[in-house]
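Order emerges. As here.
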Amino acid sequence: MQTLQTVFGKHAQLDGVRSQPEILPGVKLALIDVKRMPDVYRDMARHQPYAVCEMAPTMYLMALERGAALTALPLPMTRRFRHSGIKQRKGLALSSPKALEGRKVGVRNYSVTAAVWTRGVFADDYGLDASKVTWVTEEAENLDDLPLPPNVERLPPGQTIAEAPARGELDLAFDGLAGAGNADDMEDLVTDAAAVEQRWFDRTSIYPIHGVIVVRNDVIRDHPGIQQALYQRFDEAKQAYLARLDSIAVPSGDDKRYRRLRALMADPLPYGFAENQASFEALIRYAHEQKLIGKLVRADQVFVDPRTGGPTQVAHWK
């Protein structure tokens, strides 16, 4: 049995993939546990050590432009609307995301996908000029050759985004892995985010993605049809998860979010290129506007749908 070194997050919709790792006759996924998925994204961007891997979509686009031999499948792993996700110091009470201009916002690094989405969404919806915000980072960028704009600052070694607001050094920060963790002592910048996000989705059909499955191109060439097999297995596993979602006795945060999102859409985890085209195109536009990628590449050239592509089709940066 040939094994393919594989990493993806501990998402409940992938339980069926974990339980059936043989993806083609004689070929199975060798699943590797890791402490932090952001470290995996960095490794895949720099030297592609894994055959099949979850990867932040912005980092994938940046790596692909630099020649990484990877192909992303339209299998978004995590979804989150981005009007929420920035917290402000209690009592600050900024009136709008436009009021971020002239202030400092903490974020893990400048190119993290959560920040790319948020800067783009706030520019589109509130007229935010992200160049007038000082983005304060904690970690180095995943790609060493990324030129950072002058409004990006790095915290001194040993200091963290999570601790900076309490020291009075930051008024605002991203929550979760993108910045300050749980940020229990801070409150949402956009207080009516759920209603705003529903209007955003109704108007744009954009449903932000925060992880996709990528496959090394040599694996695709060596195992024709593996993209189709992965897509089918992932889709079957997701359908099984959604069928049991409402009956989960102790739901996780993701379970609760996907239950709520069913009010917006029948499938809170849509797979496929056509199903996600608006989101892919928006992310590419935002990454280009923020000078993380050099051109507006066609979405269907970099997110290859196994349902319509050939058994060895790979992504092309053109």
About this structure: The mean pLDDT is 91.
